[in-house]
Amino acid sequence: xxxxxxxxxxxxxxxxxxxxxxxxxxxxxxxxxxxxxxxxxxxxxxxxxxxxxxxxxxxxxxxxxxxxxxxxxxxxxxxxxxxxxxxxxxxxxxxxxxxxxxxxxxxxxxxxxxxxxxxxxxxxxxxxxxxxxxxxxxxxxxxxxxxxxxxxxxxxxxxxxxxxxxxxxxxxxxxxxxxxxxxxxxxxxxxxxxxxxxxxxxxxxxxxxxxxxxxxxxxxxxxxxxxxxxxxxxxxxxxxxxxxxxxxxxxxxxxxxxxxxxxxxxxxxxxxxxxxxxxxxxxxxxxxxxxxxxxxxxxxxxxxxxxxxxxxxxxxxxxxxxxxxxxxxxxx
Amino acid sequence: xxxxxxxxxxxxxxxxxxxxxxxxxxxxxxxxxxxxxxxxxxxxxxxxxxxxxxxxxxxxxxxxxxxxxxxxxxxxxxxxxxxxxxxxxxxxxxxxxxxxxxxxxxxxxxxxxxxxxxxxxxxxxxxxxxxxxxxxxxxxxxxxxxxxxxxxxxxxxxxxxxxxxxxxxxxxx
Lengths: 332, 173
Prior knowledge:
A: 11 helices, 14 strands, 41% helix, B: two-stranded antiparallel sheet
């Protein structure tokens, strides 16, 4: 996934080598015009467009995985019909596939824009639920109240958390920490410790920053539920960017952070501005609040849109291609 | 020419960071240190480091590292002309790490205003004088410059790529 918008994803199967070369060339040429496609082999169900060769076995499997609304371009010597099916005669011809992709890009971007506008103008599809009774809530309280606690559960190493020194001692790996954060509160046993007890238990364990675990558990536990006492209509901005090299993150978080570093806006306005699903924005907000980088103290007026860059399409295309070239492995 | 500039004081890890994401080892202009920098490292960059990455369409993105020593500052303007954006690297364990950061923010203020910047804090595994990341946040907040600040290992390509992704997000939004 790229951090930049407006790139459409193509998944393909069974293309002959010459067709594959032609398709890649068409995509490269289109990128120079700001028409951005990316080929991706994994997760075809998330692709905007499927390109299949009629003769291949893999194409049939891919077709089964396809979503009803997905556009399928079928390369064949025969003519295919069907909803969202476009038949293209083999072998691929550069100018025709390029012009087809360009037409599809325009059409699909318009459709995406329309459905986003519809979502923005529709009343909130579901009420925002409050986030309660999760390990994330316990961690926030532990830090606020300066408590020292032990979190234990079957199958995982215990966590010793010092809310005063903001530290966490454990033998759990990063993956295990994520798994613990995703457990229901009933599956965990939580007890208060004295600072002396903390020293005894934490001896020989790895000390990690409580901030990092607060961030991860905020992202994992929130699931679109907002911390109690917070509002999706209250304007806020970021005091600082999250330390993404040490935190779990989604590609979309770069965009959220970049907007919030320059603009003051509410969760609702941020959704409108960024077009990112509100659940992701709430997860980001909760985690950012927990690590102390949300600034909402004296802010009453939103400034969203007052400091947004107008980046020419050609430059956007270049930046998007750089992002694609430097793909990150560790997205959530 | 499309280029990304890496800057920062002597020993911050500019050459290493460029090398961790580039296609060829950086072409350097390292010479033996003859001044106080010798206490930090034996060799230093005097003119620039250079390497590149190639995009799918064949476009080359040039990666330039500025010389760290102040007496080579005249190179900074030359290198930034036409640049896409700036990566500032600061040794987190330097006793005056915050001052060092401010010096580079001031020196490149015009270029940052026109483009954008990200800050990578290096040598995070050393804790002799280490400054907490929150102090860097505070410094930037006071300056009303909410730029990305990440703790990185300049040898880890994933860390350096994360910096570049943040830079791209800053440039686009």
